[in-house]
Structure to design on (107 residues):
């Protein structure tokens, strides 16, 4: 709904679990071995059907790790842009929080 209303959306995800496809870690807690889930903030900047376009805050880096749902976007020269497409349901299973950004007066 936030993307449809053209409002920026910030998400927090368990990034290490997202790229490793560790479904046991979807609650963003450290696993039994103490592995860090890698809490990370990114922005959802678009969508197309069941896929969402995410802008990573790590600059132009992009990694899909072991998650076949992540497709890194590249520019015309073949360089990664820091954006990636991902299936909505896959992203949701690794999200910890979401917030939209709007005017301070609530309008």
């Amino acid at each position: 709904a936030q993307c449809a209303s053209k409002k920026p959306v910030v998400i927090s995800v368990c990034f290490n679990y997202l790229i490793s496809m560790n479904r046991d870690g979807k609650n963003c807690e450290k696993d039994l071995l103490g592995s860090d889930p890698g809490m990370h903030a990114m922005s959802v900047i678009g969508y197309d059907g069941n896929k969402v376009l995410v802008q990573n805050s790590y600059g132009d880096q992009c990694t899909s790790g072991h998650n076949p749902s992540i497709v890194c976007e590249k520019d015309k020269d073949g360089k990664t842009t820091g954006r990636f497409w991902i299936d909505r349901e896959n992203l949701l299973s690794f999200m910890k929080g979401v917030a939209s950004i709007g005017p301070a007066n609530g309008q």
Remarks:
- DSSP finds two helices and six strands in the chain.
